């Protein structure tokens, strides 16, 4: 499979089952589903799309839906990058990296004051991917939003200017 063959599809209700199954798989592999997980995953339209958020899927012509990621609107101009997952048998193929870059490109079209994510130290590969793509660890984000999940012990904020300075 070549990641060049991926296309990125916005949310539609027919893909709700994929959103649930992809995310439930990785969450249950590493953690325990929390009430907020159930709410968001079982009714993504109500909890993510209707309040002004976005969901995208990484799709492959022959293999179907491989991964997903959401931007959950928290307030005007404030979004949480959340529920990013790739089906277990497709991990390691750079699907997550392509998906993240697509979501970041889409986020740049929005008037964002803040883009952040919450995760756990167990997700070391994901944390590395986030760092590589412009996210920095943030105690401010942890204090403000970290209590959203019991499993949260890492908070990061997207800082593309910082990323550009580090890369150059």
TrEMBL record:
Residues 17-155 form the N-acetyltransferase domain. It comes from Lacimicrobium alkaliphilum. Gene3D superfamilies: 3.40.630.30. PANTHER family: GNAT FAMILY N-ACETYLTRANSFERASE, LD18367P. This is N-acetyltransferase domain-containing protein. CDD domains: NAT_SF. The lineage of its organism: Bacteria, Pseudomonadati, Pseudomonadota, Gammaproteobacteria, Alteromonadales. Keywords: Transferase. InterPro entries: Acyl_CoA_acyltransferase, GNAT_dom, NAT_camello-type.
């Amino acid at each position: 499979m070549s990641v060049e063959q991926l296309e990125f599809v916005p949310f539609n209700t027919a893909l709700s089952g994929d959103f649930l199954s992809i995310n439930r798989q990785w969450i249950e592999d590493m953690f325990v589903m929390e009430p907020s997980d159930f709410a968001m995953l079982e009714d993504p339209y109500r909890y993510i799309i209707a309040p002004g958020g976005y969901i995208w899927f990484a799709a492959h012509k022959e293999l179907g839906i491989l991964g997903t990621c959401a931007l959950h609107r928290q307030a005007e101009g404030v979004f949480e990058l959340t529920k990013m997952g790739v089906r277990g048998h497709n991990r390691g193929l750079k699907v997550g990296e392509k998906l993240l870059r697509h979501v970041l490109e889409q986020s740049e079209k929005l008037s964002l004051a803040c883009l952040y994510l919450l995760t756990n130290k167990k997700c070391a590969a994901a944390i590395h991917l986030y760092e590589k793509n412009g996210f920095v660890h943030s105690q401010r984000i942890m204090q403000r939003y970290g209590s959203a999940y019991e499993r949260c012990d890492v908070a990061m904020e997207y800082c593309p200017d910082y990323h550009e300075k580090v890369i150059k």
